[in-house]
Amino acid sequence: MAKRIDVKDLNLYYGKFHAVDSVSLAVPPHSVTAFIGPSGCGKSTVLRSLNRMHEVIPGARAEGKVLLDGEDVYASSVDPVSVRRTIGMVFQRPNPFPTMSIRDNVVAGLKLAGERDKRKLDRVAEEALRGANLWAEVKDRLNRPGGGLSGGQQQRLCIARAIAVRPDVLLMDEPCSALDPISTLAIEDLIGELKKDYTIVIVTHNMQQAARVSDQTAFFNLAGVGQPGRLVEVDDTERIFSNPGQKATEDYISGRFG
Ligand SMILES: Nc1ncnc2c1ncn2[C@@H]1O[C@H](COP(=O)(O)OP(=O)(O)O)[C@@H](O)[C@H]1O
Ligand SMILES: [Mg+2]
């Protein structure tokens, strides 16, 4: 299997607390991988470690390897800022810059990197907004503030902002949990389209959503109170939801706990 991301023996800590134990998993290019599991089992922690956002938290550290196209993103020669450009992130609550215009929200990353060519910025903004399925709704109000959009539109604006810097991978941490059902479906459709161009890893507490949008599913669990979270199994989504290899997975997906 081709691997865009290859995680090997990854252990994650918050100070002395061992939050996640020895995760190994691979993510093929142009696919959607869903992380599921009960609250606190380390899904967000693993997700944030993939683009080195984990270590931004004081005291947090990672041990092990995360290979992106074969290169260890934790190698000492690697600049974490460039990792975060290649592996973008969309958060649970849409977080546009509320008073900044819709257009400037989308190109914020490029402007920060020094791009000043207005025509280029306009072109990138349009492309990214089209890519995020938002162009038709905002093309007549690009100079209005991002904070004036609905929640679902704001989340697509954040997706446009993430893809404007042309990442290879998009990480999404429960991107629909603050959205209504219609906006949720719009984001799910968009995820299906985005995987043509990007590799996507999504955390979701919604198992129907995992089943609908993902190609492979990773089930994380806690062995017990105070124990680190661990990856129970990762497999094709169809298999996880029809015939998982582990009893704990079956119990979780059939709603017996969590
Ligand atoms: N910033 C933090 N500082 C200390 N502990 C944290 C922090 N974030 C998460 N944790 C702990 O790490 C474990 C995994 O959390 P998290 O990755 O948020 O789980 P999930 O996303 O699966 O709900 C939990 O025990 C949580 O309390
Ligand atoms: Mg989480």
Question: Can you describe this structure?
Answer:
The chain is an alpha/beta fold and 258 residues long. It has a domain of 176 residues: 3-Layer(aba) Sandwich (Rossmann fold), CATH 3.40.50. It contains eleven helices and ten strands. It has a ten-stranded mixed β-sheet with strand order 5-4-1-2-10-9-3-8-7-6, with helices on both faces. A hairpin with a 2-residue loop joins strand 1 and strand 2. Helix 5 crosses helix 7 and helix 7 runs parallel beside helix 8. The chain is globular, with a radius of gyration of 18 Å. Bound molecules: adenosine-5'-diphosphate and magnesium ion (MG).
Name the features.
alpha/beta; Rossmann fold; binds adenosine-5'-diphosphate; binds magnesium ion; AAA+_ATPase
Summarize the entry for a quick read:
The chain has helices at residues 43-50, 80-86, 102-106, 108-112, 118-131, 135-138, 151-164, 181-194, 207-213, 237-242, 247-253; strands spanning 5-14, 17-27, 32-36, 60-68, 71-72, 87-90, 169-173, 199-203, 216-222, 229-236.
